[in-house]
């Protein structure tokens, strides 16, 4: 049996897995891009994600984040100690959701985070107190879960020099390629591949302005087969050649 409550730090490393118990991931600091069963959200202070038992979930935090994680692998025992609150909490744990804590609950979460969670009595009693608070308060409205765009951006940046397909991005969100394409278009107004193309060109422009790398090397780093193809794409998107972009960057730095 895992520890009921634990502090965890997340980074840009992409984590994706599932487990046979429900979990609550409660934000303490930073922003954590979080996806459960293909639905994306963001875990920040006063916000938490509900991960039902068996649900595939993935997360990444490009800037780093810190969370209190509540593993309910002893769910029946814990809920059995909450009397009339048990049914409310079972319903809460059945579906993926992104929810908001009220100020008192947020204070409780931070108090628990500062407590010796390795003490089984403190961890168990703290967990019960938190569950009772969630059940007893007005049920927070679930916000529509979004695609994990920051995590997708980080993935595109890491793999900009390699072929990328819609299916590669869809896997990060736990969706089929067709469903991901439709969701992405609805949320961003762009197709996934148009978005990838623009991110590559933005990365290329940043490298042109901040490094002395050869244009051909930059083209390869952002996924273009030739310098001429990269130059033509820059001109179409930004109206400038690599040389003009570098000249403008030098002029601005003087």
UniProtKB/TrEMBL annotation:
Entries under InterPro entries matching the protein: AraC_XylS_family_regulators, Homeodomain-like_sf, HTH_AraC, RmlC-like_jellyroll, RmlC_Cupin_sf, Tscrpt_reg_AraC-type_HTH
Role summary: Regulatory protein of the TOL plasmid xyl operons. XylS activates the xylXYZLTEGFJQKIH operon required for the degradation of toluene, m-xylene and p-xylene.
- Record's protein name: AraC-type DNA-binding protein
HTH araC/xylS-type domain span: 150-248
Pfam families given in the database record: HTH_18 (PF12833)
Q: Which GO terms describe its molecular function?
A: DNA-binding transcription factor activity; sequence-specific DNA binding
The record's section on PANTHER family has: HTH-TYPE TRANSCRIPTIONAL ACTIVATOR RHAS-RELATED (PTHR46796), TRANSCRIPTIONAL ACTIVATOR FEAR (PTHR46796:SF10)
Its source organism is Pseudomonas panipatensis
Q: List keywords of the entry alphabetically.
A: DNA-binding, Transcription, Transcription regulation
């Amino acid at each position: 049996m895992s520890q009921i409550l634990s502090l965890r730090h997340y980074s840009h490393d992409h984590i994706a897995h599932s487990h046979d118990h429900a979990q609550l991931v409660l934000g303490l600091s930073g922003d954590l891009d979080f996806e459960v069963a293909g639905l994306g959200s963001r875990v920040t202070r006063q916000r938490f994600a509900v991960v039902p038992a068996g649900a595939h979930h993935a997360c990444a935090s490009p800037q780093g984040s810190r969370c209190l994680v509540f593993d309910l692998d002893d769910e029946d025992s814990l809920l059995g100690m909450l009397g009339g609150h048990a049914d409310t909490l079972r319903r809460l744990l059945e579906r993926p959701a992104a929810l908001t804590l009220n100020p008192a609950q947020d204070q409780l979460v931070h108090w628990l985070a500062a407590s010796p969670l390795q003490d089984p009595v403190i961890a168990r009693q703290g967990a019960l107190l938190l569950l009772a608070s969630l059940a007893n308060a007005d049920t927070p409205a679930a916000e529509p879960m979004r695609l994990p765009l920051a995590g997708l951006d980080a993935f595109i940046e890491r793999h900009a020099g390699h072929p990328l397909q819609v299916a590669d991005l869809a896997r990060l969100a736990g969706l089929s390629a067709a469903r991901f394409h439709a969701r992405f278009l609805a949320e961003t107004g762009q197709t996934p591949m148009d978005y990838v193309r623009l991110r590559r060109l933005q990365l290329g422009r940043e490298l042109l302005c901040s490094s002395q790398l050869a244009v051909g090397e930059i083209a390869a780093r952002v996924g273009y087969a030739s310098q001429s193809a990269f130059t033509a794409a820059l001109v179409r998107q930004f109206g400038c050649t690599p040389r003009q972009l570098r000249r403008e960057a030098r002029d601005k730095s003087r």
